[in-house]
TrEMBL record:
It catalyses: guanosine(15) in tRNA + 7-cyano-7-carbaguanine = 7-cyano-7-carbaguanosine(15) in tRNA + guanine. One of its GO terms (biological process) is tRNA modification. This is tRNA-guanine(15) transglycosylase. Keywords: Glycosyltransferase, Metal-binding, Transferase, tRNA processing, Zinc. It holds the Pfam family TGT. Binds 1 zinc ion per subunit. Belongs to the archaeosine tRNA-ribosyltransferase family. Pathway: tRNA modification; archaeosine-tRNA biosynthesis. It comes from the Archaea. PANTHER family: QUEUINE TRNA-RIBOSYLTRANSFERASE (PTHR46499). Its cofactor is Zn(2+). Residues 13-340 form the tRNA-guanine(15) transglycosylase-like domain. Substrate binds at residues 128, 196.
Length: 494
């Protein structure tokens, strides 16, 4: 395990962890939000972030300080913690954002890492190449090779006890992202940002984002803390955490406030469009949209930024509680219903069920079947895999109804899991809360479970007694299985 990061709780690929930041002398609990602090314009002071919101870590741009006539000498003399009046951990970026925006910067990896060390940064960043989405593969490969050279150079720089980021690039090519992550994981670097995803997030390409994070996670060890660079909207935090992201940096709280935009976990509202505040934070509880609009621009911006932070930190706490309770995927499901592209992201997430299953706990409080996507969750996949290890002997009834003494064994059948020994009825996840009106996918997955059990027990004979299964599910039941519809044909044992 990496000495700086330890996982305490899992749910799917989401985790609550502890990131030890030795230079700051603090341990940051993850998933964690890093508010972005602009060195030149501070909508909310870092000391307020710490005192009012409990911020344990923030991020700022070392390149802006490096090139600043106003701040460079001051931060070198005083140190960044004193300059910002912040006692938690401070991560610094290297100028890669400016490189992506303007095409060039006047500093290299060695210089900027030494500068970050000298100003007292706790987590520094080399100058990687943030390759945008959808570029030609040749460009993505060339720029990734440059980034990897710089990561190797970063290993040779004397950074003292400062942790160092190892950014993962590769544009929208999952195989390049996985290879980049594998390379970064083999270095001595400490934290692993998945870079250049902001254009995807700005265009609501959550499914593509999930696929790229999944690829990066396949290349990284479980002890690697993952930072989703530039992801700051609370509506997508649960989705990204469920895929294994640990750190998020948000400039949205301030940038949106500057444009009179109001964050919610379902999206973004314009202040002028609100008649009521749908929030219980101190800002919203003490004013109305009309009153806030009447404030002077600076005060309105500050109050909106505070609201945005309350919503953002509140969602992080909600996610942690969901991980602890084992219902993170139910929270993701709820958030996915807030926007069609979030639903695309959730569907992409469950496409990686086999990857999620590797770390998903085998026991939780409850499994709630909420939609067709629930049929593809890792718990269903795990049950199907375990069916291949279970023995069924003789003439076996698989029934949605009661037992029947005419058979040697009677197993229960419950969509979406399929068959299981009746003694396991109260065991997670087979004690699932399932609606009476199920979708087709639940029955089709139950049929897949029947197929797995039959294939694993070729010497047994099977009969399926079912209630109103759709034709597509019945068609997926192996031909050698006898089938009866309960309440209609012989064999109604309800």
């Amino acid at each position: 395990m990496r000495e700086c990061f330890e996982v305490r709780d899992w749910d799917a690929a989401g985790r609550i962890g502890e990131l030890e930041v030795p230079r700051a002398g603090v341990t940051v609990e993850t998933p964690a939000l890093l508010p972005v602090i602009n060195p030149h314009v501070r909508t909310i002071e870092p000391s307020v972030l710490e005192a009012k919101f409990g911020a344990e870590i923030l991020i700022t741009n070392a390149y802006s300080l490096y090139g600043s006539d106003e701040h460079r000498e001051d931060v070198l003399e005083r140190g960044i913690h004193d300059l910002y009046d912040f006692s938690g951990a401070i991560m610094t970026d290297s100028g890669s954002f400016q490189l992506a925006e303007y095409g060039t910067i006047d500093v290299d990896t060695e210089e900027i890492l030494q500068f970050q060390r000298d100003i007292g940064s706790d987590i520094g960043t080399p100058v990687d190449i943030p390759t945008p989405p959808d570029v030609p593969r040749e460009q993505a490969e060339e720029e990734l090779a440059t980034t990897q050279e710089r990561l190797e150079l970063a290993e040779t720089v004397d950074t003292g006890d400062m942790l160092v980021n190892g950014p993962i690039q590769g544009s929208t090519y999952p195989d390049l992202r996985e290879a980049a992550a594998d390379h970064a994981d083999g270095t001595d670097l400490d934290v692993f940002p998945v870079g250049a995803v902001v254009p995807l997030l700005n265009n609501y390409r959550y499914a593509d984002m999930i696929d790229l994070v999944a690829a990066a996670k396949r290349g990284l060890g479980e002890d690697a803390p993952v930072h989703l660079f530039g992801a700051g909207h609370p509506m997508m935090f649960a989705l990204a955490v469920a895929m294994g992201c640990d750190l998020f940096d948000s400039a949205a709280y301030a940038l949106y406030a500057r444009d009179d935009r109001y964050l919610t976990v379902r999206g973004t509202e314009h202040l002028e469009d609100l008649d009521y505040f749908p929030c219980e934070c101190p800002v919203c509880a003490s004013t109305t949209p009309d009153e806030l609009e009447a404030e002077n621009a600076r005060e309105r911006e500050r109050l909106l930024a505070e609201h945005n932070l309350h919503v953002t930190y509140g969602e992080m706490r909600r996610i942690k509680q969901a991980i602890r309770r084992g219902n993170l995927l139910e929270l993701v499901e709820t958030r996915a219903r807030g926007h069609p592209t979030m639903l695309d992201g959730y569907r992409a997430l469950v496409d990686h069920a086999a990857q999620l299953e590797e770390t998903d706990p085998v026991s939780k409080d409850a499994f709630f079947y909420l939609s067709s996507e629930s049929a593809a969750r890792p718990e269903v996949l795990r049950h199907h895999q375990r069916l291949e290890r279970l023995n069924a002997e003789g003439n076996v009834l698989l029934s949605e109804g009661d037992t029947n003494e005419a058979y040697d064994e009677t197993w229960r059948v419950t969509p979406p899991f399929g068959p299981f020994p009746r003694d396991l009825s109260d065991v997670y996840p087979l004690n699932a809360e399932v609606p009476e009106r199920l979708d087709v996918q639940a029955y089709e997955q139950a049929a897949e479970g029947v197929s797995r059990l039959v294939a694993a027990n070729p010497d047994a004979t099977f009969t399926l007694a079912y209630h109103d299964w759709p034709e597509t599910a019945l068609a997926a039941v192996p031909d050698e299985v006898s089938v009866y519809q309960l309440g209609v044909e012989d064999g109604d044992w309800d």
